[in-house]
């Protein structure tokens, strides 16, 4: 009969120890290995296991290995996204520094240097805001209109891309709004000479982001990670955003499709 390490005979109900004993593992007389399971896991250690305890131990160790793999993947993504953010901020932050150096050489406040610093500082702030909404937890709570306004202001200041994100598309929940924001940011990468980006949100939940412009196209490696399963170890700072978008689409209950033809690209969530 199954007994507890404390010597009590627990009452059995649906395979669990219901005696209230928290002193140790439950094990069978013929299988004392169960006593080796840590008492720090009462939800596991108090399960009455009628087969081989080695199987249960292997299962627990297997879960631990999966957890370690998940942590390794998270670390890779953190490193790559951090590298991507730093890369995109080097330009405007470096320009601010250049303006400060010009002022230092002149010894007085120079209008041209001040203008450069002001413009570059605002650009860095806008990019940080987009990264905060796209990659950070803020994107799960900020309303979609604020996301649209943030990316629209960034494009307007840049002066190369026009964005049409209609009113229908700003009524969606923040989780899907964050998804659209990332789709728009990826679509911008496909416009080397600028162009137009149109966001369409249909009543059935289908979302499409179309980008049109001269030589509009996704890089082959970015297109690949958006279309196919790719191991995190194969990513780099240029492709991690596409990987992030694909998984974000799955997490919100849909799938991402990528379409390309001359001068036009489309990202579709359905």
TrEMBL record:
Boundaries of every Histidine phosphotransferase ChpT C-terminal domain copy: 150-262
Ranges in a coiled coil: none
Protein's UniProt name: Histidine phosphotransferase ChpT C-terminal domain-containing protein
Source organism of the structure: Thalassospira xiamenensis
């Amino acid at each position: 009969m199954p007994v507890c390490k404390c010597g009590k005979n627990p009452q059995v109900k649906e395979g669990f120890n219901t005696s209230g004993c928290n002193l140790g593992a439950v094990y069978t007389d013929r299988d004392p290995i169960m006593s080796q399971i840590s008492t720090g896991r009462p939800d596991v250690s108090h399960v009455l296991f009628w087969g081989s305890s080695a199987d249960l131990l292997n299962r627990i160790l297997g879960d631990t290995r999966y957890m370690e793999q998940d942590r390794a993947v998270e670390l890779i993504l953190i490193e790559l996204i951090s590298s991507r953010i730093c890369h995109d901020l080097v330009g405007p932050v470096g320009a601010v520094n250049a303006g400060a150096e010009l002022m230092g050489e002149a010894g007085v406040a120079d209008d041209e240097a001040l203008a450069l610093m002001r413009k570059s500082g605002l650009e860095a702030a806008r990019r940080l805001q987009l990264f905060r909404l796209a990659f950070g937890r803020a994107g799960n709570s900020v309303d979609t209109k604020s996301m649209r306004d943030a990316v629209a202001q960034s494009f307007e200041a840049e002066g190369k891309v026009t964005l049409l994100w209609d009113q229908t598309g700003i009524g969606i929940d923040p989780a899907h709004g964050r998804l659209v924001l990332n789709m728009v940011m990826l679509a911008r990468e496909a416009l080397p000479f600028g162009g137009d980006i149109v966001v369409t949100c249909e009543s059935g939940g289908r979302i499409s982001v179309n980008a049109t412009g001269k030589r509009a196209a996704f890089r082959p490696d970015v297109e690949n990670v958006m279309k196919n399963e790719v191991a995190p170890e194969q990513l780099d700072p240029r492709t991690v955003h596409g990987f992030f978008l694909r998984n974000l689409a799955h997490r919100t209950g849909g799938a991402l499709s990528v379409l390309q033809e001359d001068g036009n690209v489309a990202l579709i969530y359905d």
